[in-house]
Write a structure and sequence with these properties.
The chain has about 90 residues and is mostly helical. It has helices spanning about 25-35, 35-55, 60-75, and strands spanning about 5, 10-15. The chain has a two-stranded antiparallel ribbon. Helix 2 packs antiparallel against helix 3. The mean pLDDT is about 90.
Length: about 90
């Protein structure tokens, strides 16, 4: 049984996540307000950021940076700056 959320990223109703994928308050906020589609889009951005910036997920500063980028992307509609990456032209 899928659930619908009003996605803060897409600004429309969409299929919600099946379970909380991120810990804590932020995780709950994501679960309640972010769709599967928006989360999948973030996962792609996150992978590019980790690779581009050579982030180490064991480093608290790197995790903090990534969490900030995730919050900006999902809730503020801000695309992370990924050097050397040009989005495909629509």
């Amino acid at each position: 049984m899928s659930r619908t959320v009003f996605c803060a990223h897409l600004k429309q109703d969409a299929e919600g996540l099946d379970f909380q994928l991120y810990p804590g308050e932020l995780g709950k906020r994501i679960f309640d307000n972010i769709s599967k589609e928006a989360w999948a889009a973030w996962q792609k951005k996150q992978t590019m950021l980790i690779n581009e910036k050579k982030l180490n997920m064991m480093d608290p500063e790197h995790r903090k940076f990534l969490e900030g980028a995730m919050t900006d992307f999902l809730f503020e509609g801000k695309d992370p700056q990924i050097e050397g990456y040009t989005p495909p032209k629509a």
